[in-house]
Amino acid sequence: MNQEDRISFLSPPRGAAPLPPGPVRYWMQAAIRTRYNHALEYAIHLANHRKVSLEVFFVLTWNYPQASRRHYQFLLEGLADVQANLSSRGIPFVLHQGDPPGVALRLAGESSSIVTDRGYTRIQRGWRDELARQAPCPVIQVDTNVVVPVETASVKEEYSAATFRPRITRQRDTFLQPLSPVPYWNSRGPLAPAAALPPADSVPGEPLEEALPGGEDAAARELTRFLEERLSRYSELRNVPDRDWTSRMSAYLHFGQISPLEIALRAVDYHEAVLEPGDASGVETLLEELIVRRELAINYTFYNPHYDSYQGLPQWARTTLEEHRDDRRPWTYSYRQLEAGETHDPYWNAAQHQMLRSGRIHGYMRMYWGKKILEWSPDPEEAFSRAITLNDTYQLDGRDPNGYAGVAWCFGKHDRPWKERPVFGKVRYMNDRGLERKFKEISRYTRRWTS
Ligand SMILES: Cc1cc2nc3c(=O)[nH]c(=O)nc-3n(C[C@H](O)[C@H](O)[C@H](O)COP(=O)(O)OP(=O)(O)OC[C@H]3O[C@@H](n4cnc5c(N)ncnc54)[C@H](O)[C@@H]3O)c2cc1C
């Protein structure tokens, strides 16, 4: 087993210096779950080994960029599950409020080690670096939100799924290993109920009309429903906008409320135990999305410092978009018109309304949604920044490597040049007639989200 690849020592080596006294603390940042959490199990293992106590903490900041009420609601539901599930294992959980690296640094002064998990965006990396630079105790990072650890999968930014797929597929099965919970040596049984968590309603933004419930328990239930009801026809129906046939796992994955490893293992097990051999394509298609595509997006975010801006696009895409910068656009809209879902195109408006009302857009329609923002904005840079802002503000799974790679894909990232045409240049094009040809019942999707 290569699970050691998940572990990195972030702080400078201490030589023979003795460890400071104090508990082991796990700073839960990006893996808000107690199941299939390698960082948590590693922290328990350290505390057991040293016979010191363990505490898990999370630092809630109320001004995380672009997070609104819908995101806080989902996050807090996840933290409530963590609190309850840790308490049943006899492990204390403390919620702090304030500046995350500042609080983590203060706690590092009273800890023998800080273990943390791993998010890949600039802000998450910045917080960990700040702690690691200044902490008086060792800081250990455990890469638990991917199947294959990022640097093990590839040591550089990959050009496309075609270059990444063989690398990650070679290593996939080594890392598709179950993770058993380690009993905590100092557990004295379930802990007394902790203080209630703060409510999300002080944060600006409307509550969602049709929200997925947040938290690892809801994620596990949703996964069971997906396996039982939709996995066998996932390949066939996942791209049909009026059939909501995908797993709905992305928001849970974004908040770390479920592990991709658990999804993959449960899907493979379910397939072997219940489905016919002819249904194999469902599980293989899911693993392609969940491992190849998702971890390619993480590869991009990790290795490309411009992952959320126009500069992150490949040179061929920027050149062709530049050549078509002054092309006449058949329609242009302001940011506000797009945000309100008020364009001439009923399919696009439906996708935008789905996002406003439910915090997600059907996977196929996300591509169409991003392509049209490119077509209808005054220039490609403005289009890119609008797509990122809308995606991060309204998608429950926004502010995620998948969102950055997804938007960038609409502008040519991880894709190849196609036939040249106005505005798009050689970037792949999509149009409403294509949707109508492909999906006879597309009007059902439109009615569902615009009535
Ligand atoms: C413009 C645009 C914006 C996007 N924004 C986001 C975003 O903010 N957050 C987000 O998580 N995904 C985003 N995606 C990727 C993808 O559309 C969603 O992950 C997917 O629709 C989520 O639904 P699901 O969980 O039911 O997916 P399923 O089809 O059930 O797939 C299972 C899992 O595989 C991964 N996955 C599926 N498709 C992709 C993909 N194309 N790229 C990378 N990983 C994938 C996701 O983690 C997903 O949860 C975006 C795509 C585009 C084109």
What is the CATH-assigned architecture of the largest domain? 3-Layer(aba) Sandwich
Q: Quick one: CATH class of the largest domain?
A: Alpha Beta
- What characterizes the major β-sheet? 6 strands, mixed
Are any ligands bound, and if so which?
flavin-adenine dinucleotide
Looking at this structure, what is the CATH superfamily of the largest domain? HUPs
- Percent range of helical residues: 40-55%
| Percent of residues in beta strands | 5-15%
Number of domains: 3
CATH topology of the largest domain: Rossmann fold
In sequence order, what are the helices and strands, one letter per element? EEHEHEHEHEHHHHHHHHHHHHHHH
Derived from helix and strand composition plus strand pairing, the structural class reads mainly alpha
Report the average pLDDT across residues: 96
Description:
The structure is a single chain. This protein is mostly helical and 451 residues long. 48% of the residues lie in helices and 6% in strands. It has 19 helices and 6 strands. The chain starts with 6 loop residues before the first strand and ends with a helix. 45% of the residues are buried. The model has no long low-confidence stretch (mean pLDDT 96). Flavin-adenine dinucleotide binds next to helix 9, helix 11, helix 15 and helix 17. Flavin-adenine dinucleotide is lined by residues 238, 246-250, 253-254, 289-290, 293-294, 297, 363, 366-367, 370, 391, 395, 397-398, 400, 402-403, 405-407, 409-410. It holds the Pfam family DNA_photolyase. This is Deoxyribodipyrimidine photo-lyase. InterPro entries: Crypto/Photolyase_FAD-like_sf, Crypto/Photolyase_N_sf, DNA_photolyase_2_CS, DNA_photolyase_N, Photolyase_Class-2, Rossmann-like_a/b/a_fold. Residues 22-150 form the Photolyase/cryptochrome alpha/beta domain.
